[in-house]
Write a structure and sequence with these properties.
By secondary structure, the chain is of the alpha/beta class. It has one domain: Glycerol-3-phosphate (1)-acyltransferase, CATH 3.40.1130.10. It is 38% helix and 16% strand. The chain is built from eight helices and seven strands; from the N terminus they run ααββαβαβαβαβαβα. A seven-stranded mixed beta sheet has the order 1-7-6-2-5-3-4, sandwiched between helices. Helix 4 links the parallel strand 3 and strand 4. The longest helix has 21 residues. The two termini are 14 Å apart.
Protein backbone atom coordinates (compact mmCIF):
# COMPACT_ATOMS: atom_id res chain seq x y z
CA UNK A 1 0.00 0.00 0.00
CA UNK A 2 1.26 3.44 -0.89
CA UNK A 3 2.48 5.59 1.97
CA UNK A 4 1.32 8.83 0.38
CA UNK A 5 -2.36 8.73 1.42
CA UNK A 6 -1.41 7.98 5.01
CA UNK A 7 0.75 11.09 5.23
CA UNK A 8 -1.59 13.43 3.36
CA UNK A 9 -2.37 16.46 5.53
CA UNK A 10 -5.86 17.01 6.87
CA UNK A 11 -8.00 19.34 4.74
CA UNK A 12 -8.20 23.04 5.56
CA UNK A 13 -11.38 24.94 4.74
CA UNK A 14 -10.71 27.61 2.13
CA UNK A 15 -13.98 29.48 2.65
CA UNK A 16 -14.69 31.45 5.82
CA UNK A 17 -18.33 31.94 6.80
CA UNK A 18 -18.45 32.37 10.59
CA UNK A 19 -21.89 33.99 10.37
CA UNK A 20 -23.35 30.58 9.50
CA UNK A 21 -21.87 28.80 12.51
CA UNK A 22 -24.37 28.41 15.34
CA UNK A 23 -26.28 25.93 17.45
CA UNK A 24 -29.61 25.55 15.63
CA UNK A 25 -32.66 26.44 17.69
CA UNK A 26 -35.13 23.59 18.00
CA UNK A 27 -38.15 25.52 16.81
CA UNK A 28 -41.42 23.77 16.00
CA UNK A 29 -40.66 24.19 12.30
CA UNK A 30 -37.18 22.66 12.67
CA UNK A 31 -38.49 19.77 14.78
CA UNK A 32 -41.08 19.07 12.10
CA UNK A 33 -38.46 19.24 9.34
CA UNK A 34 -36.15 16.91 11.27
CA UNK A 35 -38.97 14.40 11.65
CA UNK A 36 -39.64 14.63 7.91
CA UNK A 37 -35.92 14.31 7.15
CA UNK A 38 -35.66 11.25 9.38
CA UNK A 39 -38.42 9.55 7.42
CA UNK A 40 -36.90 10.60 4.10
CA UNK A 41 -33.48 9.25 5.06
CA UNK A 42 -35.08 5.95 6.10
CA UNK A 43 -36.66 5.71 2.67
CA UNK A 44 -33.42 6.59 0.86
CA UNK A 45 -31.42 4.15 2.98
CA UNK A 46 -33.85 1.31 2.29
CA UNK A 47 -33.85 2.15 -1.41
CA UNK A 48 -30.06 2.32 -1.84
CA UNK A 49 -28.57 0.37 1.06
CA UNK A 50 -29.00 -2.95 2.84
CA UNK A 51 -28.21 -1.90 6.40
CA UNK A 52 -27.58 -4.33 9.24
CA UNK A 53 -27.00 -3.21 12.80
CA UNK A 54 -25.30 -4.52 15.90
CA UNK A 55 -25.22 -3.26 19.48
CA UNK A 56 -28.32 -1.07 19.21
CA UNK A 57 -29.08 -1.88 22.84
CA UNK A 58 -26.15 0.40 23.73
CA UNK A 59 -28.01 3.48 22.46
CA UNK A 60 -29.19 5.71 25.33
CA UNK A 61 -32.65 7.23 25.41
CA UNK A 62 -31.30 10.76 25.52
CA UNK A 63 -28.35 13.10 25.97
CA UNK A 64 -26.10 14.75 26.63
CA UNK A 65 -24.08 12.44 24.44
CA UNK A 66 -21.16 12.80 22.04
CA UNK A 67 -21.36 10.22 19.25
CA UNK A 68 -18.06 9.60 17.45
CA UNK A 69 -17.98 7.79 14.12
CA UNK A 70 -15.51 6.70 11.47
CA UNK A 71 -15.89 8.39 8.11
CA UNK A 72 -15.82 6.42 4.85
CA UNK A 73 -18.13 8.20 2.42
CA UNK A 74 -21.32 9.99 1.50
CA UNK A 75 -23.54 7.17 2.78
CA UNK A 76 -22.34 7.48 6.38
CA UNK A 77 -24.88 10.11 7.41
CA UNK A 78 -28.04 8.72 5.78
CA UNK A 79 -27.22 5.17 6.88
CA UNK A 80 -26.56 6.17 10.47
CA UNK A 81 -29.35 8.70 11.05
CA UNK A 82 -31.88 6.42 9.34
CA UNK A 83 -30.95 3.68 11.82
CA UNK A 84 -31.14 5.82 14.97
CA UNK A 85 -34.35 6.13 17.01
CA UNK A 86 -33.72 9.87 17.47
CA UNK A 87 -32.73 12.88 15.35
CA UNK A 88 -29.29 14.06 16.51
CA UNK A 89 -27.33 17.23 15.92
CA UNK A 90 -24.16 16.90 13.88
CA UNK A 91 -21.10 18.86 12.89
CA UNK A 92 -20.61 19.21 9.14
CA UNK A 93 -18.00 20.87 6.96
CA UNK A 94 -18.99 24.37 5.86
CA UNK A 95 -18.21 23.53 2.21
CA UNK A 96 -21.44 21.52 2.04
CA UNK A 97 -23.50 24.66 2.60
CA UNK A 98 -22.85 25.79 -0.98
CA UNK A 99 -24.11 22.57 -2.55
CA UNK A 100 -27.30 23.14 -4.56
CA UNK A 101 -30.42 22.05 -2.65
CA UNK A 102 -28.55 19.69 -0.30
CA UNK A 103 -26.75 22.53 1.44
CA UNK A 104 -30.02 24.34 2.21
CA UNK A 105 -31.70 21.14 3.37
CA UNK A 106 -28.83 20.49 5.77
CA UNK A 107 -29.07 24.04 7.06
CA UNK A 108 -32.80 23.72 7.60
CA UNK A 109 -32.18 20.48 9.49
CA UNK A 110 -29.73 22.38 11.65
CA UNK A 111 -26.17 21.24 11.05
CA UNK A 112 -23.48 22.86 13.19
CA UNK A 113 -21.25 24.13 10.40
CA UNK A 114 -17.53 23.65 10.93
CA UNK A 115 -14.43 25.17 9.32
CA UNK A 116 -11.88 22.36 9.12
CA UNK A 117 -8.15 22.54 9.67
CA UNK A 118 -8.27 25.50 12.05
CA UNK A 119 -9.55 26.08 15.61
CA UNK A 120 -13.21 26.91 14.91
CA UNK A 121 -14.14 28.30 18.30
CA UNK A 122 -17.67 29.18 17.18
CA UNK A 123 -18.41 25.61 16.18
CA UNK A 124 -16.90 24.19 19.36
CA UNK A 125 -18.89 26.67 21.45
CA UNK A 126 -22.09 25.75 19.62
CA UNK A 127 -21.47 22.05 20.21
CA UNK A 128 -20.72 22.65 23.89
CA UNK A 129 -23.93 24.65 24.23
CA UNK A 130 -25.82 21.79 22.62
CA UNK A 131 -24.34 19.25 25.02
CA UNK A 132 -25.18 21.57 27.92
CA UNK A 133 -28.80 21.48 26.71
CA UNK A 134 -28.73 17.68 26.79
CA UNK A 135 -28.52 17.15 23.04
CA UNK A 136 -26.94 14.25 21.15
CA UNK A 137 -24.17 15.44 18.82
CA UNK A 138 -22.36 13.45 16.14
CA UNK A 139 -18.78 14.17 15.11
CA UNK A 140 -16.28 12.37 12.86
CA UNK A 141 -12.88 12.77 14.59
CA UNK A 142 -10.95 11.89 11.42
CA UNK A 143 -12.05 15.19 9.90
CA UNK A 144 -12.53 13.81 6.36
CA UNK A 145 -13.35 10.67 4.40
CA UNK A 146 -10.64 8.09 4.95
CA UNK A 147 -8.21 8.09 2.04
CA UNK A 148 -7.35 4.42 2.55
CA UNK A 149 -10.61 2.85 3.74
CA UNK A 150 -8.98 2.27 7.13
CA UNK A 151 -9.29 4.40 10.26
CA UNK A 152 -7.13 7.51 10.03
CA UNK A 153 -5.51 9.58 12.76
CA UNK A 154 -8.05 11.60 14.72
CA UNK A 155 -8.12 15.33 15.35
CA UNK A 156 -8.59 16.85 18.79
CA UNK A 157 -12.08 18.35 18.47
CA UNK A 158 -14.01 15.37 19.83
CA UNK A 159 -11.70 15.02 22.84
CA UNK A 160 -12.00 18.76 23.54
CA UNK A 161 -15.79 18.54 23.54
CA UNK A 162 -15.84 15.43 25.71
CA UNK A 163 -13.46 16.90 28.27
CA UNK A 164 -15.06 20.33 28.44
CA UNK A 165 -18.66 19.10 28.55
CA UNK A 166 -18.14 16.02 30.69
CA UNK A 167 -20.55 14.21 28.35
CA UNK A 168 -20.15 10.48 27.76
CA UNK A 169 -18.78 9.29 24.42
CA UNK A 170 -20.51 6.66 22.28
CA UNK A 171 -18.44 5.08 19.48
CA UNK A 172 -20.31 3.92 16.37
CA UNK A 173 -18.62 2.46 13.30
CA UNK A 174 -19.86 1.96 9.77
CA UNK A 175 -18.50 -0.43 7.16
CA UNK A 176 -19.44 -0.68 3.49
CA UNK A 177 -20.15 3.05 3.06
CA UNK A 178 -17.13 3.93 0.91
CA UNK A 179 -18.17 5.94 -2.16
CA UNK A 180 -16.68 3.55 -4.70
CA UNK A 181 -18.50 0.62 -3.13
CA UNK A 182 -21.90 2.30 -2.65
CA UNK A 183 -22.01 4.01 -6.05
CA UNK A 184 -20.74 0.85 -7.70
CA UNK A 185 -23.71 -1.09 -6.35
CA UNK A 186 -26.11 1.70 -7.31
CA UNK A 187 -24.88 1.64 -10.93
CA UNK A 188 -25.89 -2.01 -10.99
CA UNK A 189 -29.27 -1.16 -9.43
CA UNK A 190 -28.36 -3.08 -6.33
CA UNK A 191 -28.37 -2.09 -2.67
CA UNK A 192 -24.97 -1.78 -1.05
CA UNK A 193 -24.46 -3.88 2.11
CA UNK A 194 -23.70 -1.58 5.05
CA UNK A 195 -23.09 -2.59 8.65
CA UNK A 196 -23.41 -0.35 11.70
CA UNK A 197 -21.94 -1.38 15.03
CA UNK A 198 -22.66 0.55 18.23
CA UNK A 199 -20.13 0.31 21.03
CA UNK A 200 -20.52 1.05 24.71
CA UNK A 201 -20.50 4.51 26.23
CA UNK A 202 -17.43 5.66 28.12
CA UNK A 203 -15.94 8.82 29.56
CA UNK A 204 -12.47 10.08 28.86
CA UNK A 205 -9.97 9.26 31.54
CA UNK A 206 -7.44 11.71 32.89
CA UNK A 207 -7.79 15.33 33.85
CA UNK A 208 -9.87 17.64 31.68
CA UNK A 209 -7.54 20.16 30.12
CA UNK A 210 -7.05 22.17 26.94
CA UNK A 211 -3.36 21.28 27.01
CA UNK A 212 -2.10 19.42 23.97
CA UNK A 213 -1.01 16.39 26.01
CA UNK A 214 -4.51 15.91 27.44
CA UNK A 215 -6.19 16.34 24.06
CA UNK A 216 -3.79 13.89 22.44
CA UNK A 217 -4.46 11.29 25.14
CA UNK A 218 -8.22 11.79 24.85
CA UNK A 219 -8.07 11.53 21.06
CA UNK A 220 -6.11 8.28 21.29
CA UNK A 221 -8.73 6.89 23.66
CA UNK A 222 -11.55 7.83 21.28
CA UNK A 223 -9.81 6.44 18.19
CA UNK A 224 -8.94 3.22 20.03
CA UNK A 225 -12.61 2.78 20.93
CA UNK A 226 -13.53 3.11 17.24
CA UNK A 227 -10.71 0.79 16.17
CA UNK A 228 -11.85 -1.90 18.60
CA UNK A 229 -15.23 -2.01 16.82
CA UNK A 230 -13.79 -2.21 13.30
CA UNK A 231 -12.61 -5.33 11.45
CA UNK A 232 -8.89 -5.78 12.02
CA UNK A 233 -7.92 -5.01 8.41
CA UNK A 234 -9.37 -1.47 8.54
CA UNK A 235 -8.42 -0.46 12.10
CA UNK A 236 -5.58 1.70 10.82
CA UNK A 237 -2.68 2.56 13.06
Amino acid sequence: MSEEPLSAPKPVTEVWKPNLVRLPKLTLARRAFRKFSHGLLKFVARLCLRVTTEGMENLPKGGPLLVVINHLGDADTPALIASLPFTPDALGKIELYDLPILGRLMDWYGVIWLHRGKPDKRALRAALDGLAEGRIIIIAPEGRYSLTGALEEGTGGAAFLAYRSGAPVLPIILTGTGNALVYGYMKKFRRAPVHIRVGKMFRLTGQASARREALDAGTRQIMAALADLLPEKIRGE
